[in-house]
Every structure is written in structure tokens, then in C-alpha cells.
């Protein structure tokens, strides 16, 4: 059906569809920069070090799966004029309970993780300076001040610079190790070596697969895209985001395969593995390349920090606003839906709201205590369980929302969208079960 017949969430005709154009790109860059964290890059490096180029095909499938998920989240916001949390709430009170518990516990642990990850490359670059705790607190406070005092337009520009640094550094390092082009293309054939199943699932579901995918629709609204006339623009923007993410994954697989696989160098799991890689690069290519890589490591970690500080705070502000308001009806033609509309005006107000700033403070100050204390055992368990369940929750609720009367008929899922979201849901359920099994029970 043609886009010109699209309607907004209030039943009013949408304006004429905008042409998809590179000049509009923005929210996709933000979601790509936020979703790719240091730990994700290490997991990809380890997969490359163990299996060479064999799992390249899994990285490509992972990009397609995440394009489908983020497109669905953006389509919901634009087609209905309602936020994602507003859609979740229409599914029943269980979604509110789950999200409330999740966002509090996840934010507490993630805050400490993000600050530590951003501090690690600074400590490696300046080993004679202050220690990890000092730099972790400094990066957290800088992130807090930046998001507190700036609106989306400035935030997007800074994220674009950071992802530019990430992109140049990661591609440069991959080029320095001289990739085997033939083996790279051979790796596009689906093959599962012995012991590779979990690494394969991790490559498909891991990099860029976080709560920031749910925040994508909020950034779409913050950009000023508020109805279905922006659908083509959003889809181009989303594809750019995950093709960029795919380049990161492929580049890090190349580094793992060429630099680590042959020499059987083992990396520390988690963010510290990138410090190990910096040492390997220094031995192989000199201090200049190692320092450049650490700068890229910092850009990767700090972009995730400020991305979460902004995006998840927006989601929390929307959660509080919707929790206080009566639930919107499922029928998109009902005028009452207009009371729950999403859009740039709402997003702008939320960025100045008390809940937005309260969650910013929650992400910054309480987690600093974890820099001195071992994480409480029960908190680690709760964080692991809730985090594992989030991506299946996102995929399956999007299927539910986008096949129901909550979504205008022409913007509901087709068979391709349903197939990709079902595949994503199944994949994330398997990863969820595995992650829960690996928790330190």
C-alpha cells in the first residue's frame, strides 16, 4: 500500500512521505555507537581467535536480525504515534512490573560497568596517572553533565564523532593485520565447527543487541520524526546503523583471526581483553598503533556510556509518565490515543523532566559504590536473569504489538517481518537460557 495513505496514531492523515536521504541520518548512528560496547568487541575477537573466519556468516545474520528488530521499534513509534513503553503497557500490567524491576537493577550494575570500561583505556594510555576508580568517576560525571545540559541535536553530533573514531580505528587495525580475503568470503558459508554453537549464537545476538534497540524509537522521535511520513527515512537510517555495526563485527573478527588465531594468544574476557589486545598490537606494530587503538577503545566505551545515559533515561521518563496516566486503548482510531502520543515535543519535555534527571543520577552515583565493593551475589543473579530476558521480551512483544489493532493495518507486520522477529525471539530465548545457566548460582 502506498505511504501517502498513511495515518498517524490519532487517525489524522500523515503528511507526504519524505524521501529517504543521507542528510537525515542520525538516530541510527546513535544506536550503533551505543549498542557496540567494549565487551561485545572482545567476545567477537575471542570468536575470531578460536575459529578464524569460519563464523563470518553469523555476523552477517546478526546484522539482518537487528535491522529487523530496530525497524520494528521505529515503525511502532512512527505508525502509531505512541511510545514503545505505552505499547507494552497496553499488553497488561505484567510489562510494567517487569520493566520497573529491570530498569532499576540493570541501571545500577550497568552504571559501574560503563564507567569502568571507559576508564580502562585512559589508565592504559596514562599508566603513571590516577587509577581506575578515579577515571571511572570522572567519566561518569562527564557523561552526567553532558546529557544533563545538552539536548538531542548536540548529543547526536558528539555520538557521530565518537562512532567516526571507532570506525576509523577498527577498520585501520583490521587493515594492518592484512585480512585473508579468500577466507573471509569462505566464512560466509554457514558452517558450525565443533564447540562453536554458543559463539555463533553470541555473534548473531550479542553485538549491538541491548536495551538501546528499544531506545531507538525514542531517538527517532527526538530527531523530529513523528509520523509515518518518515518511515522511509527511518528505514534507511536503521540500515546504516546495523551495516556500520556489521563492519565493526567483521573487522574485529579479522583481527581475532589474523592476529590471535594463528599465534593462539588468549585474551581476558570482558572489557580488559581490549587492554590485552593493545599490548599485542604494540608488540606487533609499535606503540603508535597501540595508542590509536586505545583511543578507539575509549570512543567505543564512552559512546555506550552517554548513549545509555541519554536513551534509557528517556525510556525511564516515559515509563513514569505513562505509569501516572491512564492506559491508552488498543484501537488506533480511538481519539483517546492522542493523549498518549509520542513525538518530538513529548521527547523534548521528557529530557527536561524530573524522572529523566533522576534516572541520570541513578546511573551515575549509586553505581560508584560498586567500584569499591564486590557486587552483591544476589544482585549479580538478578541482573543476569533480567538482562537475559530483555531481548526475548523485546522481540516477542514487538510481534504482539505489530500484528494487533494497536497498529494501523498498513503498517502491521508482513511475513518477512514476522519471520525475522520470530527468528530473533527464538535466538534470544536460547541465549537467555544459556546465560541463565552460566550464572554463578
Which terms summarize this structure?
441 residues, 0% strand, globular
Folded structure, characterized:
It is globular, with a radius of gyration of 21 Å. It is built from 17 helices and no strands. With 441 residues, the protein is an all-alpha fold. Mean pLDDT is 84; it is low at 1-14 and 331-340. Helix 1 (27-35) runs parallel beside helix 11 (231-261) and helix 1 crosses helix 13. The N and C termini lie far apart (52 Å).
Topology:
Elements lengths: L26 H9 L2 H14 L4 H25 L3 H7 L2 H33 L6 H18 L2 H25 L4 H6 L10 H9 L6 H12 L7 H31 L10 H14 L1 H38 L19 H8 L2 H11 L12 H25 L13 H23 L4
Helix pairs in contact: 1-7, 1-10, 1-11, 1-13, 2-11, 3-9, 3-10, 3-11, 3-16, 3-17, 4-5, 5-6, 5-13, 5-15, 5-16, 6-13, 6-15, 7-11, 7-13, 9-17, 10-13, 10-14, 12-13, 13-15, 16-17
Amino acid at each position: 500500500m502506498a505511504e501517502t495513505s498513511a495515518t498517524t496514531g490519532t487517525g489524522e492523515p500523515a503528511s507526504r512521505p519524505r524521501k529517504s536521504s543521507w542528510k537525515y541520518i542520525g538516530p541510527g548512528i546513535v544506536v550503533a555507537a551505543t549498542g557496540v560496547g567494549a565487551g561485545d568487541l572482545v567476545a567477537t575477537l575471542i570468536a575470531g581467535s578460536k575459529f578464524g573466519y569460519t563464523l563470518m556468516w553469523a555476523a552477517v545474520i546478526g546484522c539482518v536480525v537487528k535491522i529487523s528488530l530496530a525497524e520494528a521499534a521505529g515503525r511502532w513509534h512512527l505508525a502509531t504515534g505512541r511510545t514503545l513503553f505505552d505499547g507494552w503497557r497496553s499488553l497488561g500490567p505484567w510489562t510494567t512490573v517487569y520493566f520497573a524491576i529491570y530498569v532499576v537493577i540493570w541501571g545500577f550494575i550497568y552504571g559501574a560497568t560503563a564507567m569502568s570500561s571507559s576508564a580502562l583505556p585512559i589508565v592504559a594510555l596514562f599508566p603513571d596517572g590516577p587509577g581506575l576508580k578515579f577515571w571511572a568517576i570522572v567519566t561518569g560525571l562527564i557523561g552526567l553533565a553532558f546529557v544533563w545540559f545538552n539536548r538531542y541535536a548536540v548529543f547526536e553530533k558528539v555520538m557521530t564523532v565518537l562512532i567516526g573514531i571507532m570506525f576509523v580505528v577498527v577498520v585501520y587495525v583490521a587493515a594492518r593485520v592484512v585480512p585473508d580475503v579468500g577466507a573471509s568470503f569462505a566464512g560466509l558459508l554457514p558452517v558450525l565447527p565443533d564447540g562453536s554453537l554458543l559463539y555463533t549464537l553470541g555473534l548473531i545476538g550479542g553485538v549491538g543487541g541491548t536495551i538501546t534497540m528499544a531506545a531507538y524509537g525514542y531517538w527517532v522521535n527526538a530527531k523530529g520524526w513523528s509520523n509515518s511520513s518518515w518511515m522511509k527515512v527511518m528505514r534507511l537510517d536503521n540500515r546504516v546503523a546495523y551495516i556500520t555495526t556489521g563492519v565493526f563485527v567483521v573487522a574485529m573478527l579479522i583481527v581475532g583471526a589474523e592476529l590471535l588465531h594463528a599465534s593462539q594468544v588468549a585474551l581476558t574476557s570482558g572489557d580488559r581483553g581490549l587492554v590485552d589486545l593493545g599490548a599485542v598490537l604494540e608488540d606487533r606494530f609499535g606503540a603508535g598503533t597501540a595508542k590509536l587503538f586505545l583511543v578507539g577503545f575509549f570512543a567505543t566505551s564512552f559512546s555506550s556510556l552517554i548513549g545509555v545515559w541519554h536513551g534509557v533515561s528517556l525510556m525511564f521518563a516515559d515509563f513514569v509518565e505513562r505509569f501516572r496516566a491512564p492506559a491508552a486503548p488498543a484501537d488506533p482510531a480511538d481519539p483517546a490515543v492522542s493523549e498518549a502520543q509520542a513525538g518530538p515535543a513529548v521527547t523534548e519535555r521528557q529530557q527536561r523532566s524530573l524522572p529523566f534527571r533522576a534516572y541520570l543520577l541513578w546511573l551515575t552515583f549509586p553505581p560508584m559504590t560498586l567500584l569499591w565493593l564486590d557486587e552483591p551475589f544476589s544482585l549479580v543473579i538478578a541482573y543476569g536473569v533480567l538482562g537475559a530476558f530483555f531481548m526475548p521480551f523485546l522481540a516477542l512483544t514487538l510481534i504482539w504489538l505489530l500484528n494487533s489493532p494497536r497498529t494501523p493495518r498498513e503498517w502491521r507486520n508482513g511475513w518477512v517481518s514476522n519471520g525475522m522477529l520470530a527468528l530473533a525471539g527464538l535466538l534470544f530465548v536460547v541465549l537467555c537460557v544459556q546465560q541463565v545457566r552460566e550464572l554463578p548460582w
